[in-house]
């Protein structure tokens, strides 16, 4: 299973993650991105997760495989 995570120390609030994958990311009260729940990537949403990772200018979005 894949999982996404937003590094809050690096996020600058551009919103590209939640624009690319609104099923996986949302905005917090300041407009910074955050993963929804614990960040699981359901089957079929891997491409959107990869787009969010690739489009973050700060490199704050990461995707990793979990066991």
How far from one another are the termini?
7 Å
Sheet/helix structural class: alpha+beta
Tally of separate domains: 1
Poorly predicted sequence stretches spanning 5 or more consecutive residues: none
Quick one: biggest sheet? Answer: 3 strands, antiparallel
Assign a percent range to the helix content: 10-25%
Average predicted local confidence, pLDDT: 97
SSE arrangement, N to C: EHEEEHE
Q: Number of helix segments?
A: 2
Reading off the top of the CATH hierarchy, the class is best stated as: Alpha Beta
Beta fraction:
25-35%
Shape: globular
Strand order of the largest sheet: 4-1-5
CATH fold category name? Alpha-Beta Plaits
Q: How many strands?
A: 5
Which CATH architecture? 2-Layer Sandwich
Radius of gyration: 10 Å
Task: Explain what you see.
By secondary structure, the chain is of the alpha+beta class. It has one domain: Alpha-Beta Plaits. It is 22% helix and 27% strand. The chain contains two helices and five strands. The chain has helices at residues 16-20, 46-55, and strands at 2-6, 25-27, 33-35, 40-41, 61-65. The strands form two sheets. Strands 4-1-5 form a three-stranded antiparallel sheet, with helices on one face. A two-stranded antiparallel sheet has the order 2-3. Strand 2 (25-27) and strand 3 (33-35) form a beta hairpin.
Give a quick set of tags describing it:
about 70 residues; alpha+beta; Alpha-Beta Plaits; three-stranded antiparallel sheet; two-stranded antiparallel ribbon; 2 helices; 5 strands
């Amino acid at each position: 299973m894949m999982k996404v995570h937003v590094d809050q120390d690096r996020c600058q609030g551009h919103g590209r993650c939640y624009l690319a994958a609104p099923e996986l990311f949302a905005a917090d009260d300041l407009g910074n991105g955050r993963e929804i729940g614990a960040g699981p990537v359901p089957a079929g949403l891997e491409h959107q997760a990869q787009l969010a990772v690739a489009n973050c200018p700060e490199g704050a979005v990461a995707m990793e495989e979990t066991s």
